Amino acid sequence: MRILILLFTFACLTAAHAQSMDSTNCDYKIGEFYVITKSDTCCITRTKDRQTEKCNSSDSSYELIVIWLSDKKYILRDIHYNPTTAPRVMRNDVVMTVMEINPD
């Protein structure tokens, strides 16, 4: 399931790049994004510090913590990560980078 989350997040960023976002008119840190694949459509809703992913073909949704490291770099962390049980193991973290923002 974590691989599925990674794929959806990567697809979302790719779709956002393809739609040519303008950094002065579009806030890519918060909002609602859609990922459309051959077999499914998934919705990603992002607030300042949370991201929820839900696909039409599944009754499950996934909630992740969003930690912004810089303007275009952030970490996605499993909402169920517990630092008291695994303080040094953050292998479930995914570091994401917004590579490019193009004007419309």
List the helices and strands and how they pair.
Blueprint: H1 2-18, E1 31-36, E2 41-46, E3 50-55, E4 61-68, E5 73-78, E6 94-97
Antiparallel strand pairs: 1-2, 2-3, 3-4, 4-5, 5-6
Structure, described:
This protein has one domain. The protein has 1 helix and 6 strands. It has one helix at 2-18, and strands at 31-36, 41-46, 50-55, 61-68, 73-78, 94-97. Strands 1-2-3-4-5-6 form a 6-stranded antiparallel beta sheet, with helices on one face. Mean pLDDT is 74; it is low at 17-25.
Quick take:
The chain is an alpha+beta fold. The protein contains one helix and six strands.
Features:
35% strand; 104 residues; alpha+beta; single chain; six-stranded antiparallel beta sheet
- Strands, total number: 6
Helix/sheet category: alpha+beta
The tally of helices reads 1
Distance between the amino and carboxyl termini = 34 Å
Q: Provide the low-confidence segments as ranges.
A: 17-25
Which series of helices and strands comes N to C? HEEEEEE
Biggest sheet strand line-up: 1-2-3-4-5-6
What general outline do the C-alpha atoms trace?
A: globular
Q: What number of domains?
A: 1
Q: Beta-strand level of the residues, as a percent range?
A: 25-35%
Radius of gyration: 14 Å
Please tell me the overall pLDDT.
74
